[in-house]
Amino acid sequence: MIFTLFMLFTVMNMTKAETCRSTENGPVIPTIPLVIFLERVQEAALQAYGRKGFDAKLFVDMSLRQNLSATVEAFNKLPRTENGSIPANDLDVFIGNYLGGPDEDLVYVEPVDYVAEPEGFLPKVKNSEARAWALEVHSLWKNLSRKVSDNVLENPELYTLLPLKNPVIIPGSRFKEVYYWDSYWVIRGLLVSKMYETAKGIVANLISLIDQFGYVLNGARAYYTNRRCASFSHPDL
Ligand SMILES: *[C@@H]1O[C@H](CO)[C@@H](O)[C@H](O)[C@H]1NC(C)=O
Ligand SMILES: *[C@@H]1O[C@H](CO)[C@@H](O)[C@H](O)[C@H]1NC(C)=O
Ligand SMILES: *[C@@H]1O[C@H](CO)[C@@H](O)[C@H](O)[C@H]1NC(C)=O
């Protein structure tokens, strides 16, 4: 099994670009009309709400409740102040009516192969405290497992999230989608946890991105389709 995964990684090791991580804060590059529109919302939000506590990623991760043309039309009708900004109250109402929160596109799913203490789990770790801690870390797989919601699969044009067939493990906090570089560590950890089905599904997801875009994206969002990462390479394995 590990050998199979190794072979898959070797297949994926096609290009070597600059290293990028899920913590990267680089600019989002507009790619599709939805991303271009969400960037307008992002800019309006920055003007309306100010820089304090502003999370730029929040806005480009939002989804549409109606089609893009209806949404853009409503957005264009919002009142503007003299300096061109949209009053915060009007923007709040617009976002509430037309945009979905970033938590709606990935939904929780229990991993099929998770057990509280897998057979043969870290056999060399005998110390009971270290073992308890390792099992606690292991139990986080259950918290971080997600699948793309049916809504995204049915209406992908309303979401920046790219539909992936198999369940995924998300890095957590504001990074709620799959990241290529994190996937490497996730898969290694899943193998330790004997969660081979989940690991295989994640590899298949990455391969589906190669089929679609020619390489694995930095992250599974439409705004990452022109950003790639350093690929897994042999020294990492
Ligand atoms: C978008 O939605 C509006 C209102 O729901 C509808 O009238 C319009 O035909 C739709 N446009 C497209 C391109 O689907
Ligand atoms: C624009 O004007 C509004 C109200 O007139 C004000 O609250 C806001 O701070 C201004 N924004 C900028 C970027 O100057
Ligand atoms: C994991 O999920 C369980 C059950 O939903 C919850 O009680 C626990 O606090 C979560 N742990 C973390 C670290 O999120």
UniProtKB/TrEMBL annotation:
One Pfam family cited in the UniProt record for this chain: Trehalase
InterPro entries: 6-hairpin_glycosidase_sf, 6hp_glycosidase-like_sf, Glyco_hydro_37
Class of enzymatic activity (EC top level): hydrolase
Domain of life according to the entry: Eukaryota
Keywords: Signal
Family: Belongs to the glycosyl hydrolase 37 family.
Lineage: Eukaryota, Viridiplantae, Streptophyta, Embryophyta, Tracheophyta
EC number(s) per entry: 3.2.1.28
Signal sequence coordinates: 1-17
Record's protein name: alpha,alpha-trehalase
Gene3D superfamilies named among the record's database cross-references: 1.50.10.10
